[in-house]
Amino acid sequence: MTMKPLLAASTAVMLAGPVLAEPQAEVLHWWTSGGEARSVAVLQEQFAAEGGSWTDMPVAGGGGDAAMTALRARVLSGNAPTAVQLKGPAIQEWYEETGLADIGPVAEENGWEAVLPVRIAEHMQCEGQWCAAPVNVHRVNWIWGNKQILDEHGIAMPTTWEEFNAAAETLKAAGVTPLAHGGQSWQDATVFETVVLGLGGPEFYQQALVDLDPQALNSDTMRQVFDQMRVIRGYVDDNFSGRDWNLATAMVMNGEAAFQIMGDWAKGEFLAADKKPGVDFVCAETPGGGFLYNVDSFAFFKVDGDDRQQGQALLARLIMGEGFQKTFNLNKGSIPARTDVALDEFDDCARQSAEAMNAGAENGSLLPSYAHGMALRGAPAGAITDVVTAHFNSDMTSDEAVEQLANAVASAM
Ligand code: BGC
User: Fold this and answer.
1) CATH no., domain 139-293+370-412
2) What is the pLDDT of residues 335-357, one digit of tens each?
3) Hey, which residues does 305 pair with through a beta bridge?
């Protein structure tokens, strides 16, 4: 026997390593709209291409409230899913409650620290350990417009709330619904936080919705915010109650309404319907500018079994892969969380988003979205949303709303 085949045989054994189980993952998420489903499919395909077996657990409901209820039920029954769409301080809340799998080895092997902005990396860590993997950065404070309607009525995208109101009055007088809105509490909260930022500015936003400063919550500026919310209430159609966000986006697409105020997952919806930015629809930051960020991420509960643990490691690696971050975000409407993914193939709205994010990091206007679970823990965020929704859906005065807001936050802390 010569040396050659012997060497080849031993090399083959070394390369094969230990026998691996087939990676398994049951994935809980709330990406069920057209654009969202197209995006999560990218992850499913990559997972399958690497030999993984994916069990889908979609829980419909924009903003993820229903998904979070389903998650709690699963954890309480001692049967946590392998991977969960989870974000912001909820990651740390779950870590404190049940522990989360340590994905540090994947993060270190793949150099996550070097390619993530510090602010995003911090959201992904629990007591210094990597406990979640980010897929994107969504900007929440966008206003979308139907180009044809706006052109027909000679309306430019508004840069102040006064301009927005003036445009809405023109549209209303012409019989066009100014604002497509879905009356679900998280959508009310989404509009509300853009008004807080736009009318109050970044410092006020930080004080009111991040630091929960009682003076800011109970201020004249906050009164003006509720005044503007009341004005906005007059610009939605009669059937807004309970409507899903993607149906509101469809109203803008189909010319049934002029504007929608919604994060850039709405762009994913326009794109999935083959609508072109700048041609069929237009994007602009909501009046006042700034950048409210909403980073989607996945966390991994502690599970038994090699197959499931390997599924977690594989998912974490794929999620942070350069190729995945590009393709996923082209579909989702967001921009990559990784700073080293080129934006050449992205549209102008995405480039504008990246520029505003970088500028915001320099000038203090890069802020976490409260409405999308990035700024606050569950209890105070829920308390604020309850008041915002109660105000939007009644004839509560701004004075009453401000008082209720301050009280609700105080008792939730
Ligand atoms: C999530 C998005 C999602 C949107 C609507 C947001 O909270 O971050 O990924 O598309 O809700 O469901």
Assistant:
1) 3.40.190.10
2) 999 999 999 999 999 999 999 99
3) none
